[in-house]
Design a protein that fits this description.
This protein is an alpha+beta fold and 115 residues long. The chain has a single domain (2-113), classed as 2-Layer Sandwich (Alpha-Beta Plaits), CATH 3.30.70.270. It has five helices and six strands. It has helices at 2-11, 25-32, 34-50, 72-87, 110-113, and strands spanning 15-22, 57-59, 63-68, 91-93, 96-98, 102-108. The strands form two sheets. A four-stranded antiparallel β-sheet has the order 2-3-1-6, with helices on both faces. Strands 4-5 form a two-stranded antiparallel ribbon. A hairpin with a 3-residue loop joins strand 2 (57-59) and strand 3 (63-68). Helix 2 crosses helix 3 (34-50). The longest helix has 17 residues, at 34-50. The radius of gyration is 16 Å and the shape is elongated.
Length: 115
């Protein structure tokens, strides 16, 4: 991520970030166990990664998605796409079907980095 931030500063191009948190994830772990919770997280990462561009970066303990060369209006579209890809289909872990939703926030940080 540091490399992309430095590149954005150097080139003066857009850089957006999406923060993604799984809603009520503690309830998943408490209700179904940590192994099932881990399965949900693995499937979530697969869904999110499949919805991003090759040069976007997914990382973090909660989740952060770094979107190089992306203006804030485009980050809003990506955030909505991620929300839908997670919420529209239940997560199936060991024959359990679990509905998962997320809370997402986004912003463009170029104006702060490049000024």
């Amino acid at each position: 991520m540091d490399k992309k931030v430095t590149q954005s500063q150097r080139e003066g191009c857009a850089l957006s970030l999406i923060s993604l948190d799984v809603d009520h994830f503690k309830c998943v772990n408490d209700s179904f166990g940590h192994a099932t919770g881990d399965g949900v997280l693995m499937q979530l990462v697969e869904r999110v990664a499949a919805s991003l561009r090759g040069h976007d970066i997914l990382g973090g303990e909660e989740f952060a998605v770094l979107l190089p060369a992306t203006e804030e209006y485009s980050a809003a579209s990506v955030a909505e796409r991620l929300r839908l890809v997670i919420a529209n289909e239940p997560f199936v872990i060991d024959e359990l079907s679990i509905d998962v939703t997320t809370s997402l926030g986004y912003g463009n940080f170029c104006r702060y980095l490049c000024s």
